[in-house]
Specification:
Papain-like_cys_pep_sf, endopeptidase fold (from Nostoc punctiforme), 178 residues, globular, alpha+beta
Length: 178
């Protein structure tokens, strides 16, 4: 596993993590290949999730693909049409306040969307572990007012770590997660 930025190193010390966050953490640091080539790891996620016919180029937005492979590996259901970020607003159950490991769905310009996992928040942004953020699996800050859905996985018993996390407002605020 690639190391997390120092501001998020606490995630690796926290156990147990929510299963989806645990699976997402393993993928941190995966990036697209520059130029016309594709990262075979990302294309492998499409095969693993049965989406290879719909997804065959890592230049295609892949935040929904990232969530699909994370959900599948965590033993959670994958939403119908998972490549469309906004479809993740149908995942699990709605929540009013985000907790560690919840899915956050965001609006973007031109009606598209973005999806990722909550790792914390500050006064104006959610800190999101997701795919296709600066062409990779990264943690980025996304304005809270862009969030259109907070969705919680179904738990038999939620892990003790599944709670809201207050973080410092470090790092730039993302305006385009591609």
């Amino acid at each position: 596993m690639k190391p997390l930025p120092p501001a998020y190193g606490w995630i690796d010390d926290l156990r147990p993590l929510p299963r989806m966050l645990e699976e997402a953490r393993k993928l941190y640091g995966t990036f697209e290949v520059a130029g016309p080539a594709d990262n075979p790891v990302i294309l492998g996620w499409a095969k693993e999730t049965g989406l290879a016919k719909s997804y065959n180029d890592d230049a295609i937005p892949w935040c929904g693909l990232f969530m699909a492979v994370v959900a599948k590996r965590a033993g959670k259901p994958v939403v119908e049409g998972p490549l469309w970020a906004r479809n993740w607003a149908k995942f699990g159950k709605p929540a009013e306040r985000a907790q560690l490991g919840d899915i956050l769905v965001f609006r973007r310009a031109q009606g598209s969307g973005h999806v990722g996992l909550y790792v914390g928040e500050d006064y104006g942004a959610y800190h999101v572990l997701g795919g296709n953020q600066s062409d990779g699996v990264t943690i980025t800050r996304i304005a809270r007012d862009r969030c259109i859905a907070i969705r919680r996985p179904a738990y038999r018993k939620a892990p003790a770590s599944a709670k809201s996390v207050q973080l410092a407002a470090n790092g730039v605020l993302s305006t385009n997660e591609a």
